Amino acid sequence: MAKAVRDSKLDSRAAREKLVPRGDPYYRNVDKGLHVGYRKGTRGAVWVMRTYDGKKYVVESIGQPDDLLEADGVNVLNWWEAVEKARRIIAQKGSAEPKPAYTVGAALDDYLAHAKQRQKSYRDTELTVEKLIRPVFGEIEIAKLTKRDISNWHNKLASTPRRLRTKKGEEQKFAQGEMDDSTKRQRKSTANRVLTVLKAALNLAFHDEHVVDDKAWRRVEAFEDVDSARQRFLSIGEAQRLINASAADLRKLVQAALQTGCRYGELCRLHVHDFNAAAETLAIHVSKTRKPRHINLTDEGVEFFKSITAGREGSELMLTKADGTAWRESHQSRPMAEACKQGKITPRVKFHELRHTWASLSVMNGMPLMVVANNLGHVDTRMVEKHYGHLAPSYVKEAIKAGAPRFGLVEKSNVEAIA
Fold first, then answer.
1. Alpha-carbon distance 148 to 159, whole Å?
2. Closest CA to 26 of 253, 212, 254
3. Given this model, what pLDDT does residue 398 score?
4. CB 337 within 8 A of CB 345
């Protein structure tokens, strides 16, 4: 015999009168996979039941509450009768056992399928899911996920040393030694990015009605002030040493990055015809933001691109490796490390920091932030201000002096400050 289920908010008229009308029902879990709820609107109320069909939760009405009329056990039901009717409906459907619950793993599968059609950085997302999220949460039913589960995992990510490249089949290796403040900030920043991926997957599940509540992850907060550190960039002298220390094929790639501020992937996709010598521009057709743009070049930049495109077919890849093949994902990593070593660049820089170098030196030379943002492919100056604004302290000061209103209301005084 099924046990009686009490609920102090639902099992009496007096208690239900105190409930605030809202769109979502007030639910009570009465059996495994079965919830009975009271949906209270501004014009009345209804008993509902909620079950899981293997893909999403199904909600159906089961009767009118005895708020105004006496219960008759058929159309007007008290709490106990609503619970029993829900159980009978389940039994009539042939199974009191729910179908397999929707797990975080299923949510991750759905999210990856969604992201594959929309993200340029899908491979990074996939690796994040498979290495850092699925092993921890994959088997957990999404409806049973708690804020504590996610917060503990998020904190552990931040305190775990950086993962090192490890051969397939071998035990994962991690960086050794005590973490300094900069490394701790970086680990928290990484933990935030991974948390963002998990939240995106869970939010998609919530949007698709696989789960009825998002509080477990919505209330988990990211670490603050961990992305505000200054970007590493090269001085002119360091940039020259890096160029001179690079292998011939990498040297062209490095020079192209320093002349344009382009991302590695954008440079790898360039064709000879993307350089317009007459207009002194470089066309980026496929970017991270999916928006094409034209990069304006300096005289030095124009001469560089003329030198590497002269006499070549327009359809050729502009920048290739020494053997004529295309630069692919991560192909630049080891050559860059070697060039930094030979050029005595300490600490070493990654290729993406050449983009920061172009932006930082441009801002320091007085280039307006909007111009920097346009060449980098940003729709406005927010990212540029965030990462490079500190390099142009006079920019804000001069902008306020030039543009802030004057009211002419400051009264003159005979009082002077004592020196």
1. 16
2. 212
3. 66
4. no
| Rounded average pLDDT per 10-residue block, the chain, 419 residues | 74 90 88 89 90 80 91 90 91 63 92 87 89 94 93 94 75 77 86 95 90 89 76 91 96 97 95 96 83 92 96 96 93 95 93 93 87 85 72 62 68 60
The answer, yes or no, to whether the previous bond of 347 is cis (omega within 30 of 0) is yes
Angstrom distance (rounded) from CA 331 to CA 168: 19
| CA–CA distance, 233 with 238 (Å, rounded to integer) | 9
- Tell me the CA distances in angstroms from 38 to 59, 60, 61, 63, 212, one per residue in order: 11, 11, 10, 10, 15
Residue 196: half-sphere exposure toward Cβ, Cα within 13 Å: 10
Q: Enumerate the β-bridge partners of residue 35.
A: 29, 50
Name the DSSP class of 329. T
**Amino acid 409: pLDDT:** 62
The pLDDT, as a whole number, for residue 96 is: 44
- Measured in degrees and rounded to the nearest 5, phi and psi for residue 47 equal -80, 140
pLDDT the model gives residue 364: 86
DSSP letters, 221-288, are PPPSSSS-SPPP---HHHHHHHHHHS-HHHHHHHHHHHHH---HHHHHT-BGGGEETTTTEEEE-S-T
**Using CA atoms in the order 284, 280, 365, 186, what is the torsion angle rounded to 10 degrees?**
20
